[in-house]
Amino acid sequence: VATRDDIPFIMGTERLPGYEFMIGQSDAETHAREMASDGSRYLIAEEGGTPVAFAILQHLDNRHGNIYLNRFATTRQGRGIGTRALVLLQDWVFARPQAYRRHLHFSAVDERWRRLYARARCREEGVERQVYPRPDGGRVDTIRVSILRPEWEKSRGM
What we know:
The chain has 158 residues and is of the alpha+beta class. It has helices at 7-14, 28-35, 81-94, 111-119, 149-155, and strands at residues 41-47, 50-58, 66-74, 101-107, 123-133, 139-148.
């Protein structure tokens, strides 16, 4: 679980080239406030003691067990970090007995995200049309995906 000391890493990662229109960016005060929320958790993945990814989970207190992955990012793309971190993230989510569904949405313009979430056994639920503005004045659709507890259990051989 991340602490306030991890906020510079989180902010630096969400501002890496290529993430400008793929994930949100928050200031330190917003991250600190969200970190302190009872229904949220910030998680950090490390390799060899070095942070390499982060996730922001919300709605952990949802009475229906629907956990929202608000943000997920790695420091280096294309090296398997995201896949490994996402598997660990799902294990962490479903270790919570009340968790039933982990869901998120991602920008439809980046196939890397679609492949990552497919490898993590997420299923596409639909398109959210024209969610975010683009610098050129256009708008970007997002794809909604989720994984349910029974799907996660099957993927883990349970």
